[in-house]
Amino acid sequence: MKAEQERKMRKEEDESLIIYLKKEVEAALLRTDSLEKENQDLRQEVVRLKAQICSLKAHDNERKSMLWKKLQNPFDSSKTEVFLQKQSDFVKVSERNVEHSSPRPSIQELAIKEKHAKVPNPPPRPTSVAPPSLKEANDNKLPPTSAPPPPPPPPNMCAGSKAVRRVPEVVEFYRLLTRRDAHMENRTNSAAIPVVAFTPNMIGEIENRSSYLSAIKSDVEKQKEFINFLIKEVESSAFKDISDVKAFVKWLDDELSSLVDERAVLKHFPQWPERKADALREAAFNYRDLTNLESEVSSFQDNPKDLLTLALGRMQALQDRRACTN
């Protein structure tokens, strides 16, 4: 009896074990099927991404080739030869007739001559006014004798001055050409008058015909009252709030941007307070950098998902920028 009971118990245990193993096999089969489907989807996604990468590479290579062609061939060779031939012909003709020729004014020079004086905009009012100095108090005692500002110039008159371009490279090009022609002339005919004798006259003629230099001279003559107004504003400026300095520098730069070349024009005005203007600009730029740094520091948020080294690098960069501003 005991042996039969033991057999029955073993049989039941074997059957339960078989049923459990069958369930495990079925679950493994289902998991394998799902993994195969997921693997197939991933393969299709990889194929699609590879095709997209190939198309992007082809597009990138095409753009690079087009840019390379544009950089290698900015001008046709025939156009370059014609341009050089015209430049050498112009140099030779101007060397022969430099003493008898009278330069004709170009359209840009005519527009510069007709350019009216700029009407200055009033500077921004400071939020907190500093106490006036003794010089300012003495100046305020004088009665105002300012005339009403002239009407603003029409837009077509200012169009010519904005189109003026600098040409120091052309002067250097002419100098190289005249030097080369002088050496060639000295080699071929030593008895003839060397062309280098005409070089100073040639350079002076080119500078007189330069629309850039003409525009600077025009600004010096026509914008004298405007620049004197800016000089008085810079010299009398005094601020308590740094934001007022920023607004004043922005206004000053906007006003000076109407000149052809700020540095070249202001060189003709020795009373221009260059050190004070540069100090105001530096203060405004430092204030702008500090406000940008403050906004970055206040908006900094640590992302727990990022690596620790990345977050520490960002913090160290902000700390270095803060140390540089001190």
UniProtKB/TrEMBL annotation:
Coiled-coil annotated residue ranges, if any: 25-52
GO CC field: cortical microtubule
GO BP annotations, alphabetical order: protein localization to cortical microtubule cytoskeleton
Keywords in alphabetical order: Coiled coil
Pro residues bias locations: 145-156
Region (Disordered): 115-159
InterPro entries, alphabetized: CHUP1/IPGA1-like
Protein name: Protein CHUP1, chloroplastic
Origin species: Populus deltoides
Biological classification of the source: Eukaryota, Viridiplantae, Streptophyta, Embryophyta, Tracheophyta
